[in-house]
Amino acid sequence: MADHYFTQTPASKSDVRTIEAELRGMRLKFFTDAGVFSRSGVDFGSALLIESMQIPEASKVLDVGCGYGPIGITAAKLHPANAVDMIDINERAVELAKRNAEMNGVRNVRIWQSDLYEKVETRGYDVILSNPPIRAGKQVVFAIFSGAYDLLKDGGSLWIVIQKKQGAPSAFEKLQSIFPTAEEVTKEKGYRIYRAVK
Questions:
Q1: What DSSP letter does each residue of 36-74 carry, written as one string?
Q2: Among 132, 46, 60, 34, CA closest to 89
Q3: 20 to 30 Å CA-CA from 28: which of 38, 46, 50, 185?
Q4: Any residues with CB less than 8 A from the CB of 11 and at least 6 apart, and which?
Q5: Residue 102: in which H helix or E strand, if any?
Q6: Which residues does 137 contact at the CB level (< 8 Å), separation at least 6?
Q7: How far apart are alpha carbons 75 and 87 in whole angstroms?
């Protein structure tokens, strides 16, 4: 059976590559590998989220399901005063994200393996970001939403990217049921960016 990128320990043979991406006007480099999400390049959804996300300076940020790290690393580079936490269930992705933070000269991050929010001890995040693992199922995606509500400070925001054909309308309804405010920030090529504020 093929690995899913939300497997804790990918069994697929390691095959590390380097990719480059221009994100928020910055040229970044990333190591990627077999068994991690979107290994051949930063996927369109993540890139759209990165271009859309608004992060106040000196924010506490959490990237949920960080993969090899493009979203969280960009968030960290936007403002050196940001403190960015990055988590993923996939051990291989976590190791890559650590190497990628170093390769891009990012020091204001902490990266660790966690099944959803299981090993997150910080509270009061200003911003939580996620390109959720749709293939893990609706239950997992909705758990990301409800867990984010608990970890955000009042006025903090959750930013999500999701494809229309992969359940964006039901995801938006769920966000509206959890958060006092939820809005569609932008849409492009079938992808939706949602922002929900606690």
A1: STTTTS--HHHHHHHHH----TT-EEEEET-TTSHHHHH
A2: 132
A3: 185
A4: 3, 35
A5: helix 91-103
A6: none
A7: 14
Give residue 122's Cα distance to chain centre: 17
The closest alpha carbon to 137, from 33, 26, 19, 6, belongs to 6
For residue 22, what are the β-bridge partners?
27
Nearest CA to 114 out of 89, 78, 90 is that of: 89
pTM exceeds 0.90 for this model: yes
Residue 138: CB atoms within 10 A of its CB come to 14
Measured CA to CA, the distance from residue 131 to residue 193 in angstroms comes to: 10
How crowded is the C-beta side of 39, counted as CA atoms within 13 Å?
A: 15
pLDDT, tens only, 8-66: 777 788 899 999 999 999 999 999 998 888 888 999 999 999 999 999 999 999 999 99
Query: Kind of pairing, strands 17-23 and 26-32?
Result: antiparallel
The rounded distance, in Å, linking the Cα atoms of 37 and 24 is 21
In angstroms, the CA 133 to CA 118 distance is 16
| CATH architecture for the domain at 17-197 | 3-Layer(aba) Sandwich (3.40)
